[in-house]
From TrEMBL:
<dbReference type="InterPro" id="IPR049452">
    <property type="entry name" value="Anoctamin_TM"/>
</dbReference>
<feature type="region of interest" description="Disordered">
    <location>
        <begin position="129"/>
        <end position="157"/>
    </location>
</feature>
<feature type="domain" description="Anoctamin transmembrane">
    <location>
        <begin position="183"/>
        <end position="356"/>
    </location>
</feature>
<keyword id="KW-0812">Transmembrane</keyword>
<dbReference type="GO" id="GO:0005254">
    <property type="term" value="F:chloride channel activity"/>
</dbReference>
<keyword id="KW-0472">Membrane</keyword>
<dbReference type="InterPro" id="IPR007632">
    <property type="entry name" value="Anoctamin"/>
</dbReference>
<protein>
    <recommendedName>
        <fullName>Anoctamin</fullName>
    </recommendedName>
</protein>
<feature type="transmembrane region" description="Helical">
    <location>
        <begin position="299"/>
        <end position="325"/>
    </location>
</feature>
<feature type="transmembrane region" description="Helical">
    <location>
        <begin position="194"/>
        <end position="216"/>
    </location>
</feature>
<dbReference type="Pfam" id="PF04547">
    <property type="entry name" value="Anoctamin"/>
</dbReference>
<keyword id="KW-1133">Transmembrane helix</keyword>
<dbReference type="GO" id="GO:0005886">
    <property type="term" value="C:plasma membrane"/>
</dbReference>
<feature type="compositionally biased region" description="Gly residues">
    <location>
        <begin position="129"/>
        <end position="143"/>
    </location>
</feature>
<comment type="similarity">
    <text>Belongs to the anoctamin family.</text>
</comment>
<feature type="transmembrane region" description="Helical">
    <location>
        <begin position="228"/>
        <end position="245"/>
    </location>
</feature>
Length: 357
């Protein structure tokens, strides 16, 4: 299907992951893969759909609630505990599943983001072994083209729901604030934390904007008055930046506690990039199979590629900044120019900084 067509479709309510296949994939390959998934991974529920216009086959894959609970136990997923058992956050355990909030309701215990990740992890667990043991059928699947796998979303956490909350809950003349909880349910903690910070930062910028506008309005044209206002605004910015950082530490900790990632290292909620290359080994920490990339190779790339490129970019930015300062001195030396023209070098510097970032 075309990209726009997928944007307009509504996924099956109980679908976690959607696998689509090219229209050239033969029935023998599809049936082989379907049987191997159903027999080899009984934790997955697979439903087959066919689009009559594009002749595209799709597998709607869903993980059972019990398998997601076992997976949450294995990875130590932190979930909120009921108030009568002490409250707070705790790593999930199947042996004491009754102490966790919403454990009775599978629609609310796991977010759609966790459900998609869990279903995909279950499916990837034996994917390599099945393809290696598939014989001619496995070769047929490669010739037909690899399937396109994408996360689906439940109706409760649909993208349209996030859009309605974000765009339709406030008057049109006010900028809507990001719905952090809804974004977390749909996109995950990492994206939600970014939008939470972005909304907090945008709101905090109102104070220096208002204070700076007042200073600019009442500043006299003489140099002494401008210098005094510059010092006052600099002191205000120092105080504002300090308060901003301290307040965001508190706000960010609140979000992390609410979403169960307060004591979780950042790398544990990030997924490995598909382009990551390395050798397979047994982890000395978890005794699980993992991809390992030697640290000396990473250090070599940083010294020979990353560091020279960063130094070159910094040098270019420094030279452009010096050029803007020279232009500022030239503009100030010409008394006949209008006052608005004297702000031109500062505007150019701001544009250069934004572009070079």
């Amino acid at each position: 299907m075309s990209h726009k067509a997928w944007m307009k479709t509504v996924p099956t309510e109980n679908c976690d992951v959607l696998m689509t296949f090219p229209d050239t994939t033969d029935d023998h390959t599809l049936l082989w893969l379907l049987n191997h998934i159903r027999l080899g991974i009984p934790e997955l529920i697979v439903q087959v759909r066919h689009h009559k216009h594009t002749r595209v086959y799709a597998f709607f894959v869903t993980a059972t609630y019990e398998s997601l609970l076992r997976g949450a136990d294995e990875i130590g997923l932190r979930k909120p505990v009921k108030a009568e058992f002490g409250g707070g956050m705790r790593s999930f355990s199947c042996e004491e599943d009754y102490i966790y909030e919403n454990i009775e309701n599978e629609l609310y215990f796991f977010t759609s983001q966790v459900g998609c990740g869990g279903a995909r992890e279950v499916g990837q667990g034996c994917g390599d072994a099945e393809l290696q043991g598939g014989g001619d059928a496995g070769q047929g699947g490669e010739d037909a083209g690899m399937p396109s796998v994408r996360p689906s979303r439940s109706v409760r956490h649909s993208r349209g729901g996030v859009g309605r909350v974000w765009g339709g809950s406030q008057p049109s003349h006010l900028p809507p604030s990001p719905p952090a909880d809804e974004i977390c349910d749909y996109f995950g903690v990492k994206i939600a934390m970014y939008f939470a910070w972005l909304g907090f930062y945008t709101s905090a910028m109102v104070y220096p904007a208002v204070f700076g506008s007042i200073l600019y309005t009442f500043t006299e044209s003489d140099q002494t008055s401008q210098d005094i206002c510059c010092v006052v605004f600099a002191i205000f910015n120092v105080i504002w930046a300090t308060l901003f950082l301290e307040e965001w530490k508190r706000r960010g900790a609140e979000f992390a506690y609410k979403w169960g990632t307060l004591d979780t290292p950042a790398e544990s909620i990030e997924e490995p990039r598909p382009q990551f290359r390395g050798i397979k080994r047994i982890s000395p920490v978890t005794s699980a199979e993992e991809f390992y990339y030697p640290p000396w190779k990473r250090l070599l790339f940083q010294c020979l590629v990353s560091l020279p490129l960063c130094l070159a970019c910094l040098s270019i930015v420094f030279l452009l900044m010096l050029g803007c300062f020279q232009l500022q001195e030239l503009v100030l030396s010409i008394q006949e120019l209008p006052r608005i023209i004297r702000f031109l070098p500062k505007i150019v510097l701001a544009v250069i900084v934004s572009a070079c970032d």
